[in-house]
Amino acid sequence: MTLPDPEFDAECIRRILAGEKHLFHDLIRPCEHSIYFLLLSLLKNETDAEDAAQETVIKVYQNLDKFRGDSQFRTWVLSIARNEGLGRLRKIASRREDSFDADEQSGDYTPAILTSWREIPTEALEQKELGVILRRAIEGLPEIYRNIVLLRDIEEMDIRQTAAALGISEAAVKVRLHRARALLQRTLAPQLKGFAPRRKSWFGERA
Amino acid sequence: MRIDCKHVWEHISAYIDGEVDAQLRADIDRHLETCEICSAVLDSTRNVVILIADDRVFELPAGFSERLHAHIDKELEESSG
User: Fold this and answer.
1) ipTM value of the model?
2) Considering only CA atoms, which of A77, A72, A42 is closest in space to residue A57?
């Protein structure tokens, strides 16, 4: 993941506004991944997410002079992406708004008690199947938790930035993040078992 | 202070992020020393967080970036015209 660089962003924006428009490509490139996956999480359709991502970057470009620098550039961009996604969801009357208003009080967030594995090494991601399982588990989370996981754990934004991008309090980010991770651990515990490294026994590998 | 498993689970996410105060961290650490169940829950939750953050899990669709920048070029041309 590309780490944000506020000084590069500020300098880039100044030069773009002064006429070096082509620099917008470099400014937006580190945000592409976050924009697309935030929109995919909202719209649940790759074509719609890509279309909305294109619309988002144009809105960012057209409103660049309104960026005040009181948040990180990426946080500001993601709030524009989120508004774009929410606007589209409202327009698509036929599409259910998912668990938009999911009751935050309900649900069981106790973790899975497991004995068969503790740690799957990241090398196991060479198996495409593991990536599919992880993506499905995240896609299966209610929307209010999915967005948090996406920004905090996948895009590696901090709690303050995540709260700013989603327009919620930092306390809400912490509560939702906790529940999201508990839900993921529970969903994934039985599915990841097969990816755990085999333990060697005294009698060597079992046939 | 002695804390139970449920208490530990309530703070696992904050513990992983280093967001618990020193006293609570010490209490949780003491509990983990003797509780296999909570150690496994902590390890597996932390492992899930590490796995999903890997770049191989969420890859952009093929050609996404090229199409996005072509779209930007179109806008840049139009706005300067």
Assistant:
1) 0.88
2) A77
